[in-house]
């Protein structure tokens, strides 16, 4: 048996962009013995990455759903992607996804699958760097106190450019030229992508009922940051980063995304601008820091493949808490200086 | 139902030292609804931590095994602790342990339980800081390239003292006075404890057949380090730390524990001396760093409690690879300067 071999399960891919291509290459390199049987795409004639089996391309979602035992959703968006996942889950199939938006905004619809552990979404947050699994697993041994995380690579890149003296529009244009930012960059630079990811982490470790609307209302992006503000932060040896936080406030868990000043001593300040970082504080475990790539085709495909291995072995996926974690009595969260 | 409630399962504790006491307190604070039904101790008259149910204390292992549905082993050692765990596993019970020594040295005996996922040992490496779970889970989405980890808190403390100018004997005596080091400190300062932990990580992510003897033969401790050597490292802004590494060498995975020089730019050099750190490089995910407390009663109990939650929910524990991960072709591992 080869390393990681798991039999001839038929996999259905929804979407075959850069992550899908990287996943097909990983599956082939690992000789998993799975078969990528159906690949849903909009345009079958578009060129695809080397590992994508062109004979499996189809524009018919029904073919993918009917002919696949495990579904991997990489098409993105909160509409059709979510509808197809829900149908596959309702039909008893296991589903792997990298789609933070649909889970953040339509979480309740996925509740039965989340409770059953048939939905896998490690790739939705920080790509292949462990985030979903630790918060739904090992770190549950402690009561949560607070969490702070750098979750968006595009904002990191732009902030790094601002540190070199570029203005926001120039930095954004460069990020778009390099393929880091979409033509419509608002999901990234307005903090929506980070808010989607934070919502998932917060529901796993703090409050399963946290609403998307509440997080969205506490979200601000980086468009308003000027070179002068960045320069001032750097004079102190610190950095400005878009940080998503969960912390106790007024008897409830508050989740917010906003640019903050990180002093040089802060654990999240040390990461390079191409890395994401997650800082968790728990009552028993203390402070845990996890850093690594937070985006990119290969790191994202790495997480998808790990989830696929779990799905194929029928290991249950992450389940949310059954009730909100209790507020820590008299605990003062470590404040971060918000940049207005 | 309270946060995390899982019913009235009867738990049997083997050992009730500082970690056992901390665990009993966490269980009570979380209102898990489990019952610590039996607690095996050597001396029932010795004072115990507040949370330990004194009525459950017994010196009879048979009572614990017969009357408990889940066994939590915190007594340590490679003899009786291992024998009792193996008997519980053979009887179909799930077992949680913090015992890295017995798993490193008697791994083959635990093979059936490891394959079945009925043995849980997150606490055995880096306490409640995620280590076992990521290597047996998310990080399996990438082929491993190399791993470097700071795994022993006592050595970290002593090396921190050496950095202030103390000599080894003085630093060791202070570590013993503070309770960081045992009266017989050889497991820590000769690198054996780190080698036990590294062996587990290497088997989960690199080679399931890696022998304890091979790792032990590549292990050197910190007794020979002089203040002059430490001082020289600090002059470059770097640090000397006891690091366990796994990397490809001559067509096989080599695992070694030894004091190395970490330049200031190295990811593991930034951690405070009271923290452990794990750096994993994979082909798709790139470099992932996880740091946090690596010892202590509460952080260790945090990992035990997380494992206990999994065991109670019958979520499978970590399983080793089925075959060694392939050597990366032409890959040059990042060398670390060994201190002779």
From TrEMBL, chains A, B:
InterPro entries: Asp/hSer_DH_NAD-bd (IPR005106), HDH_cat (IPR001342), HDH_CS (IPR019811), HDH_short (IPR022697), NAD(P)-bd_dom_sf (IPR036291)
Residues given in the record as NADP(+) binding sites: 15-20
Keyword annotations: Amino-acid biosynthesis, Methionine biosynthesis, NADP, Oxidoreductase, Threonine biosynthesis
Transmembrane segments: none
Record PROSITE patterns: HOMOSER_DHGENASE (PS01042)
Domain Homoserine dehydrogenase catalytic: 130-309
GO biological process, one term: threonine biosynthetic process
Record: residues binding L-homoserine: 182
Pfam families: Homoserine_dh (PF00742), NAD_binding_3 (PF03447)
Alphabetized SUPFAM superfamilies for the sequence: Glyceraldehyde-3-phosphate dehydrogenase-like, C-terminal domain (SSF55347), NAD(P)-binding Rossmann-fold domains (SSF51735)
Binding sites annotated in the UniProt record for NADPH: 100
Active site (record annotation): 197 (proton donor)
GO MF annotation, one: NADP binding
Compositionally biased residues, Basic and acidic residues: 331-340
Region ranges (Disordered): 319-340
Lineage: superkingdom: Bacteria
EC number(s) on file: 1.1.1.3
Catalytic activity: L-homoserine + NADP(+) = L-aspartate 4-semialdehyde + NADPH + H(+)
Gene3D superfamilies: Dihydrodipicolinate Reductase, domain 2, NAD(P)-binding Rossmann-like Domain
Residues of the Aspartate/homoserine dehydrogenase NAD-binding domain: 15-106
Metabolic or biological pathway: Amino-acid biosynthesis; L-methionine biosynthesis via de novo pathway; L-homoserine from L-aspartate: step 3/3; Amino-acid biosynthesis; L-threonine biosynthesis; L-threonine from L-aspartate: step 3/5
PANTHER family in alphabetical order: HOMOSERINE DEHYDROGENASE
Entry-linked NCBIfam families: PRK06349.1
Name of the protein in question: Homoserine dehydrogenase
The species this protein was found in: Truepera radiovictrix (strain DSM 17093 / CIP 108686 / LMG 22925 / RQ-24)
Source lineage: Bacteria, Thermotogati, Deinococcota, Deinococci, Trueperales
């Amino acid at each position: 048996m080869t390393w990681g071999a798991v039999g001839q399960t038929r996999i259905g891919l929804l979407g075959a962009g850069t992550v899908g291509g990287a996943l097909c290459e990983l599956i082939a390199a690992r000789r998993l013995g799975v078969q990528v049987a159906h690949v849903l795409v909009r345009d079958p004639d578009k060129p695809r990455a080397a590992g994508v089996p062109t004979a499996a391309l189809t524009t018919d979602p029904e073919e993918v759903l009917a002919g696949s035992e495990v579904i991997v959703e990489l098409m993105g968006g909160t509409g059709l992607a979510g509808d197809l996942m829900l149908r596959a889950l309702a039909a008893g199939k296991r589903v792997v996804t990298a789609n933070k938006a649909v889970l953040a905004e339509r979480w309740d619809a996925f509740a039965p699958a989340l409770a059953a552990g048939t939905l896998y979404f490690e790739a939705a947050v920080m790509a292949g760097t462990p985030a979903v699994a630790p918060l739904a697993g090992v770190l549950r041994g402690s009561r949560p106190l607070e969490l702070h995380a750098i979750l968006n690579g595009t904002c990191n890149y732009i902030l790094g450019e601002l540190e070199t003296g570029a203005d926001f529009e120039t930095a954004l244009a460069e990020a778009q030229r390099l393929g880091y930012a979409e033509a419509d960059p608002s999901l990234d630079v307005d903090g929506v992508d980070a808010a989607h990811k934070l919502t998932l982490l917060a529901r796993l470790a703090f409050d399963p009922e946290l609403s998307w609307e509440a997080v969205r209302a506490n979200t601000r992006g980086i468009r308003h940051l000027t070179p002068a503000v960045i320069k001032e932060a750097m004079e102190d040896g610190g950095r400005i980063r878009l940080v998503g936080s969960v912390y106790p406030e007024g008897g409830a868990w508050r989740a917010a995304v906003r640019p903050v000043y990180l002093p040089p001593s802060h654990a999240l300040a040390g990461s390079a601008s191409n890395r994401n970082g997650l800082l968790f504080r728990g009552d028993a475990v203390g402070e845990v820091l996890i850093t690594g790539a937070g985006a990119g085709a290969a790191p994202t495909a790495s997480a998808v493949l790990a989830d696929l291995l779990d799905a194929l072995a029928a290991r249950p996926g992450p389940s949310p808490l059954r009730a909100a974690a209790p507020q820590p009595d008299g605990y003062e969260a470590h404040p971060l200086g918000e940049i207005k």
